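Support request, please re-run this one:
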Amino acid sequence: WLSSSSEQWAGWAIIMDFFNPFSQIWYHALFYYIIYTSLIIFFAYFYTAIQFNPAELAENLKKYGGFIPGIRPGSHTKEYIEKVLNRITLPGAMFLAGLALAPYIIIKFLDL
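Re-run finished. Output below.
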C-alpha cells in the first residue's frame, strides 16, 4: 500500500511541476511563450472591447456637438473609432507581451 501511494504522489508532483510557471520545464518551452503571448494579446483586445464602446463614444460626440475633423458624425465616427482602436491595441498588446516575456528571455540568455 505504501509503495503505490508514494508512486501516486510522485506522479502528482510531476503534474504539479508541469503546471508551475516557475518550473524549469517552462523556461525552455516555446509552446509556453506562444500561449503566454497569445493570452496577453487576447486579453488586451478583450479589455479594450469592454472599456471602450465606439457606438457610445460616437453618440456622445454627436450629442454634445463634438466631432472628429474629416469624419461625419454618427456611424462614420463609430467606424473610425473602431478602426483606430484596433490599430492602436495591437502595438500596445505586443509591447505588453514583450514586457511580460522580458524576464524569461533575460533568464534564458543569462543562464540564471
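The chain has one domain: 22-110. Residues 22-110 form one domain.
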